[in-house]
Amino acid sequence: MKRALFPGSFDPLTLGHYDIIKRGVTLFDEVIVAIGVNADKKYMFSLEERKKFIEEAFADEPKIKVVTYKGLTVDFCKKIDVGFILRGLRNPADFEFEKAIAHTNRDLAPIETVFLLTSARTSYIASSIVRDVIRNSGDYTKLVPDSVRVK
Ligand code: ADP
Which candidate in 41, 42, 142, 151 is catalytic? Predict the structure, then answer.
């Protein structure tokens, strides 16, 4: 069974992530959305909220799982026996950043990183921009799945 880990902060899940995950399940038998827990990082949404947003967005999709993890992504992949890491690419800056991470991961473990190019419609969306819109009381609902709502 071909399984891929889609790691990230998902603070919050955006339509960009949603697009990559949906297309990921056409390539893999299972896509595991993995929320990385970094104790030093300040998040807008709690871990529980971020997890709930993703679970609700894919409630009807049995091939998509949501987990949380600490530590190195490749160590977590080995632990749960996943052979692929899935990442999205928006622009040249993403490519340079992702290239360095993918090379490092390959040095650490025999795990392949698979990249999907973002859809044109969602290529400008980033969680940081969504957070900025939310902080300034703008309409963020066009940038995120319906499950992502601020209380
Ligand atoms: P990180 O904190 O690691 O940047 P994110 O949750 O922001 O995590 O992103 C996780 C993955 O989703 C990364 O591969 C990132 O490139 C991808 N991604 C984020 N936004 C988009 C988008 N709009 N289109 C495609 N991929 C995206």
Answer: 41
